[in-house]
Amino acid sequence: MFDTLSERLSGIFNQLRGKGRLTDADIDATARQIRMALLEADVALPVVKTFIDQVKQRCRGAEVSKALNPAQQVIKIVNEELIAILGGESRRLSLAKNPPTVIMLAGLQGAGKTTLAGKLALWLKGQGHEPLLVAADLQRPNAVEQLRVLGERAGVEVYAPEAGSGVGDPIQVSRDSLAHATRHARDIVIIDTAGRLGIDQEMMAQAAAIRDVTNPDEVLFVIDAMIGQDAVTTAEAFRDGVGITGVVLSKLDGDARGGAALSVRHVTGQPIMFASTGEKLTDFDVFHPDRMASRILGMGDVLTLIEQAETVFEEEQKERMTQKMLGGESFTLTDFLEQLLAVRKMGPIANILGMMPGMGQMKDQLADLDDKHLDKVTAIIRSMTQAERDDPRIIKGSRRLRIANGSGTTVNDVNQIITRFFDAQKMMKQMGGMMGMAGGRKATK
Ligand code: GDP
């Protein structure tokens, strides 16, 4: 599963290795290649389009990270977009307030419904539930028997029409099963419905009738991950014909290209809730979009590395700032600005900071830190030359006027910022001394 797609994607990312930065042309070329890879994997066209638009926009956008190189950035974005297309978070089954909870399974014949019914029952039993399996697939020869065998293996009761009672009516069986569940204290009813090889009116009408008499809490649409482009029409037919609340992907262990898995969430608008991965009853799991995305990318270790690089970078940045702050005089106007901007991002933390011992003055610094004021400070500092930012002592009369004009402020504003900066610098020095940092006194210019 996904082997070809994984290979194609790593080839594309490899081409980006060693690039210092990505041009628009690089991004376009990469997007085009990813698009081809997805289409070849049988992902539905509208899904591919949404995906590529999003990836392109984000690659172009302001997400320039200093921690990651361009190849890593693209991998990170593609990974996040894959997770999004697969549904983001996993969703849990919604259980009825008044048991029994009714779970109805729908899908084409051969999709893996009956097998799934057994798997789901075993899994729910493991969670402490008392499920009841209901054989409402009276179309396919042997479906009832197959369910009985599965039920026996899972240790779960199967409700089915009496042998020899004729064909039986799946709608009646479904209705009666609810009363049976209540009588026998079964808290979850799993109804296995009939499928056809293709979608047809009669089958949809029967599924809709079963839905109407059982009023299910969940209608799970079981789809064979191997069906490729047909996934879209099938999913749409079930979405419109029966209405579904969740999707189960079956046969994820096969060597399919993966298109159905990537399309079905987008097409149905419903989350993929479970994955069926083999013929054994235990080959079943809750579906996790993030795990699936990292499997598609086939680079779990690279993703971990990206995460670590980002964390380490953040920590280094903080460390560098602390050193500077405590270094007293080496604390420049550029740092001052960086610090003000960082504090603003912290929001209410600024208040807490003001309450800390020795930080009283900081509180005054922060008091008028509204957006307008900060814009002004930013403009003033950005209008200074590097030499002025490094050593504001050289900012005398004519320089002050030039800065005021350059930033659209007054000389008075500039004076205020410079005075405030000297105060902050003094405070940093004191704090450095207070904390016993030798660096606080060493840093002289
Ligand atoms: P139904 O017609 O929808 O009830 O489908 P079945 O449950 O009878 O499954 C059809 C075939 O697919 C059976 O041979 C199952 O053993 C097989 N099958 C079901 N789920 C899986 C799966 O997750 N992986 C594999 N490899 N085979 C499966």
Automatic annotation (TrEMBL):
A single GO molecular function term of this UniProt record: 7S RNA binding
Record carries keyword RNA-binding: yes
Residue positions binding GTP: 107-114, 192-196, 250-253
Compartment(s): Cytoplasm
Primary location class: cytoplasm
EC number: 3.6.5.4
Catalytic activity: GTP + H2O = GDP + phosphate + H(+)
Keywords, comma-separated and alphabetical: Cytoplasm, GTP-binding, Hydrolase, Nucleotide-binding, Ribonucleoprotein, RNA-binding, Signal recognition particle
A biological process term (GO) from this entry: SRP-dependent cotranslational protein targeting to membrane
Described purpose of this protein according to its UniProt entry: Involved in targeting and insertion of nascent membrane proteins into the cytoplasmic membrane. Binds to the hydrophobic signal sequence of the ribosome-nascent chain (RNC) as it emerges from the ribosomes. The SRP-RNC complex is then targeted to the cytoplasmic membrane where it interacts with the SRP receptor FtsY.
Domain notes from UniProt: Composed of three domains: the N-terminal N domain, which is responsible for interactions with the ribosome, the central G domain, which binds GTP, and the C-terminal M domain, which binds the RNA and the signal sequence of the RNC.
Family designation: Belongs to the GTP-binding SRP family. SRP54 subfamily.
Subunit structure, as described in the record: Part of the signal recognition particle protein translocation system, which is composed of SRP and FtsY.
UniProt name for this protein: Signal recognition particle protein
Taxonomic source organism: Actinorhabdospora filicis
